Amino acid sequence: MFSIEISRKFAVRQGLPSPARRARGVPARSPGEPFAVELRVGFAFVDEQLGERGWFIDTDELDSLIDAFVGELTADSWTERFPFRPTFELVSRWAFEQLAVSIPQLSHVELTNLSLGVSTRYGRS
User: Fold this and answer.
1) Global pTM value
2) Strand order from edge to edge, sheet including 2-12
């Protein structure tokens, strides 16, 4: 079985207050202060799915798709972009659902908040 990941690093403004920071007496982050984020998108396939060119899917095409998707994630603060509370958990699930339409055999979407060192992965078990 093969597993391939495509990743992109970018900055986003989440826009949510942090109750944990408040409880510890740590100053709140500015709502406009960006987080460094990495998006990792994975898909899996088996040997028999390799085509005559030796690959399952054209990763150049996927690169363009992921670049456009990152553009959506960075266009506005997440509190303005999403109709739900944009936690990394909910955005990971939303991203998986959106990308599953275009990426055959999508296995997971992972968002890592590089500023805080926390990763959230959503996918098929």
Assistant:
1) 0.82
2) 2-12, 35-45, 106-113, 118-123
